[in-house]
Design a protein that fits this description.
By secondary structure, the protein is an alpha/beta fold. It is built from 6 helices and 11 strands. The longest helix has 15 residues.
Length: 238
């Protein structure tokens, strides 16, 4: 019988420069998905609460006051604490700084980047993490390549044109399960993906959870991502 995490960290301090002008007056997680009337972080909090999370720590940075104002005026589905990086600590440092405010540092926790819009079973991911006795588990997505692909035979004859095929590679989907020991392995400053993750991988203590077939996942990096997310939402509602 697994005990599933009930606490999470959301990294919401990025500049979101590729989403300008949307991020000129708000942090990236406060950008709304067209047609929903809800910012990305609102969708994330609803998803976490539906997956059994009762407490979330949000790490803020760029235009933190805009995010705080929205949180203060919204009816939230779980308890939220915010921490503000007064100086940039990097992704690993920011994660460590936020993790220090989790209500129970002796228990496992989830984390997600603030620009990810997804739906899948976090409980399944937590069970996968526990079964492998991992220190950290990252969700893995297979996004579509934004270009058309050309299929050829061994003689170089073009056989077919494939519009936006799935990538042959899995990528880090920006959603994590961490054991209680993970926070102490994070750098005070810097990027855990260049320090902590490679070390855990060498020690075979880092696991990768492929997103289930059909699970929705999108990173909101550009204006085009917003448009695509709105189209996908409309299609799903039909």
């Amino acid at each position: 019988m697994h005990t599933y995490p009930t606490q999470a960290v959301i990294l919401a301090g990025g500049q979101g420069s590729r989403l300008r002008p949307y991020t000129d007056d708000r942090p990236k997680p406060m950008v709304e998905i067209p047609g929903t009337g809800t910012p990305i972080i609102g969708h994330q909090l609803a998803w976490l609460a539906a997956e059994g999370v009762t407490d979330a720590v949000i790490s803020c940075g760029h235009l933190a006051d805009v995010l705080q104002k929205w949180l203060d005026s919204s009816e939230l589905p779980l308890r939220v604490t915010t921490v503000v990086e007064n100086e940039p600590l990097g992704r690993g440092g920011g994660l460590k700084y936020a993790a220090a405010r989790l209500p129970d540092p002796g228990l496992p926790w989830y984390a997600t980047n603030g620009d990810i819009w997804t739906r899948f079973s976090l409980r399944e991911m937590a069970a996968f993490h526990a079964e492998r006795d991992a220190v950290a588990t990252l969700a893995l997505a297979r996004p579509r390549i934004p270009w058309g692909a050309v299929e050829t035979d061994e003689f170089g004859h073009v056989l077919d044109f494939i519009e936006s095929p799935p990538s042959p590679y899995l990528i880090n989907a920006g959603v994590y399960v961490f054991s209680s020991a993970f926070a102490s392995l994070l750098p005070d400053r810097g990027d855990h993906e260049r320090t902590t993750f490679p070390r855990l991988a060498r020690e075979r203590r880092l696991a990768g959870f492929p997103l289930p077939q059909g699970a929705y996942w999108r990173a909101i990096d550009t204006a085009k991502d917003l448009t695509e997310a709105a189209k996908e939402l409309a299609a799903a509602a039909r």
